[in-house]
Amino acid sequence: MATFADIGVAAGINILFAVAFLVAFAILRLQPINDRVYFPKWYLKGLRSSPMHSGSFVSKFVNLDWRSYVRFLNWVPDALRMPESELIDHAGLDSAVYLRIYLLGLKIFIPIALLSWAILVPVNWTNNTLAKSEATDKLQFSDIDKLSISNVPYGSLRFWTHIVMAYAFTFWTCYTLRKEYATVAAMRLHFLASERSRPDQFTVLVRNVPPDPDESVSESVEHFFLVNHPDHYLTHQTGFLGLWGEKVDAIDYQTAEIERLSKEIAEERERLKSDPKYIMPAAFVSFRSRWGAAVCAQTQQTRNPTLWLTEWAPEPRDVYWDNLAIPYVSLTIRRLVAAVAFFFLTFFFIPVTIVQSCKYRGSFIKSVIQGFLPGIALKIFLIVLPTILMMMSKFEGFLSISALERRAALRYYTFNFVNVFLVSVIAGTAFQQLDTFLHQSANEIPKTIGVAIPMKATFFITYVMVDGWAGVAGEILRLKPLIIFHLKNFFLVKTEKDREEAMDPGSIGFNTGEPQIQLYFLLGLVYAVVTPVFLPFILVFFALAYVVFRHQIINVYNQEYESAAAFWPDVHGRIISALVFSQLVLMGLMSTKGAAQSTPFLIALPVLTISFHRFCKGRYEPAFIRYPLQEAMMKDTLERAREPNLNLKNYLRYAYIHPVFKNDEDGENDDDVSEKLDETVLVPTKRQSRKNTPAPSMLSGASSPSLPDVAEKPES
Q1: Model pLDDT, residue 709
Q2: Residues 6+ away with beta carbon under 8 Å from 606
Q3: What is the pLDDT of residue 329?
Q4: What's the pLDDT at 133?
Q5: Helix 290-297 and helix 629-642: axis angle, to 10°?
Q6: In what order do the strands lie in the sheet with 233-240?
Q7: For position 245, what pLDDT does the model report?
Q8: How far apart are CA 344 and CA 520, in angstroms?
Q9: Are 502 and 488 a contacting pair, CB within 8 Å?
Q10: d(Cα 505, Cα 515) in Å, to the nearest integer?
Q11: Alpha-helix residue ranges (DSSP H) falling in 45-83
């Protein structure tokens, strides 16, 4: 059993590593040769020039100014100095709200830690239950256990203190979550209202466009929306299959070869445009106003709810083009297959299961195989796990990178909950736990977990120090990107573009970073009542991580997309699930401590928490799913007043061009640039006229409204 001395030694070692990483970073970031590694975001924005271009030969590589080493810790106040509004302009709302997750951890756990140390620690410490058990039952325990609920006597009235504190912690957590949800929702709406025009504000993604023997997909889309949205439809771009153009470097190829390849690429592009088999039954449809796009995106288009499916289009950088080709009818099957695969991946954890199932007679081989290989297998698997989970998300057919990352984050958190938390609490693999739970009554499961949790507090304290202290400090050092950049810079970089690509700034990595943060929320909420001594270690993590990742977001990370904090409902939901789990665990633990009479009072906690979650879901989540028509109309009105001559059609025309056609379309100079937005265009159709015909349209499943034979231009 770990003692305070053992925890102190572990803390000292991890603090030493963390300080060493931070000092190494503070020195390495000052060297001109490393400037692109530690400040790549500013280079990508064009706001920083390399210090290696001036000064003496030595000063191009090494910082010779001794005064800068005196101020080597200035990066900390620099990281905290930028206001949140400026941070949003600099890095985007996604990055700013991601940082608020760390602040949320501090807001929740600082008051809880103060309250638990002021009340629960004295209640636990002033008992001698464990000392008596040591004398009579030879029970081993540590000083940390004396600060936990384990030291309270069986059936003691002191357990009511823990119950009251559970209520206090629940109410405070819910209050903080509600306030933060309201704040982030308001930030999102303000961001959408104040931001300059973006293509996704006017564009709707349309899927499952039904085939028509008389018209191409593009013609069908144009006809359908001019008929059903005549006053608001503007233009559309039809999607292509996941084909990618080949990039050509002028330095590596001769001019003649470039011209030949460029001609072939142009011919291939034209062939793809005219070949129906490469056209997907999906399109990005743009409207004249945000209001028109909001109406289309948030309503059902036809009687048949499986055709002409509309949703808000992700921003162009966020589109995952390959999945636009997946038929809508196959999505349900794909997601079922992915769910089954993830279940087996989680509960039949192959690397450890295989090793543990092997039997060896030799003592040395047995020690190596069973004592060393499972840890190595787990480490290797956890490195490739995010890639596996992203592949699963892509297989499921999500259409944006942000949606892919959100689904992968959910699965990563679930995997960590089962194979890191539960496996550590209860000995054995996840499959062995599942087998045990299946042979137990539902009432016994919380008891099994609840009894084991206090005994694992020291393990998780060590885990937090290694992963949350030293690990976070190691993140800012960027040792791997530093080495790779210098290797590429020495051997591969030939052009400025090569040097820019070698910087590899990375991003916040929501699919891996957020689930890791959620594990700390889970640990903090579970141990808040059971072992309060755990909470200060959590607070150090949240504080250190906030400073480190704020620095990284300002200077390093280059976010690939902007979803306007669409991930916050997931963050809120996972914290709620951790809170409910902690309440169930406490209920199970109390039932083994002779406090069964407290069960009715504890049952009310998850009921109240779930009710609170339903309230938040109804009150705030719509802001992350739908765009209020009132907000859309206000934004449109203001924009028309400020920019009356805005040529929206020209602005949106190539916003959602498939990457294989991007360069080709961007270089075009057609005669439609000066086209007026209010111009009415007659759409030619190859379909037989349905004027005054009651027969339903093949496209809409309903009768089309009568159209005039000739569309006249309005008088000027």
Answers
A1: 37
A2: 580, 583, 584
A3: 81
A4: 61
A5: 160
A6: 233-240, 279-287, 203-207, 309-312
A7: 36
A8: 25
A9: yes
A10: 21
A11: 66-70, 75-81
Q: Which helix (H) or strand (E) holds 284?
A: strand 279-287
Q: Residue 692 pLDDT > 70, yes or no?
A: no
Which of 56-65, 154-163, 274-283, 611-620 shows the lowest mean pLDDT across its residues? 274-283
Nearest to 411 by CA among 329, 494, 309, 340: 340
β-strand partners of 206: 283, 310
Rounded to the nearest angstrom, the gap between the alpha carbon of residue 542 and the centroid of all alpha carbons in its chain is 18
- Coil, helix or strand for 204? strand
Confidence band, pLDDT 50/70/90 cuts, at residue 372: low
Contacts of 84 (CB under 8 A, 6+ apart): 96
- Over residues 29-87, the pLDDT tens digits come to 999 999 999 999 999 888 888 777 666 777 778 878 888 888 878 899 999 999 999 99
What is the distance between the alpha carbons of residues 249 and 252, in angstroms, rounded to a whole number? Answer: 6
Q: Are strands 203-207 and 309-312 parallel, antiparallel or unpaired?
A: antiparallel
User: What average pLDDT does the chain have?
Assistant: 81
> Which residues lie closer than 8 Å to 558 by C-beta, 6 or more apart?
40, 41, 44, 505, 506, 507
Beta bridge partners of 237: 284
* Sequence-distant (≥ 6) Cβ neighbours of residue 686 within 8 angstroms: 214, 215, 219
Between 304 and 360, residue with greater pLDDT: 304
Backbone angles phi, psi at 454, to 5 degrees: -60, -30
Distance, first Cα to last Cα, the chain: 87
* Burial (Cβ within 10 Å: 0-12, 13-18, ≥19) of residue 445: middle
- pLDDT, greater one: 465 or 444: 465
pLDDT for residue 276 = 65
437: amino acid identity, one letter? F
**Cβ–Cβ under 8 Å, residues 323 and 239:** no
Degrees, nearest 5: CA angle 258-261-263: 105
Q: CA distances (Å), 371 to each of 376, 381, 419, in order?
A: 10, 17, 18
The secondary structure element, H or E, covering residue 234 is strand 233-240
- 157-160 CB contacts, 8 Å cutoff, 24+ apart: 158/123, 158/127, 159/590, 159/593, 159/595, 159/598, 160/598
Question: Which residues make beta-bridge pairs with 419?
Answer: none
State the virtual CA torsion across 616, 618, 624, 628 in degrees, nearest 10: -130
Can you give the pLDDT at residue 243? 38
DSSP state of 514: H
Q: What is residue 371's predicted lDDT score, i.e. its pLDDT?
A: 52
Angle between helices 363-371 and 350-357 (to 10 degrees): 160
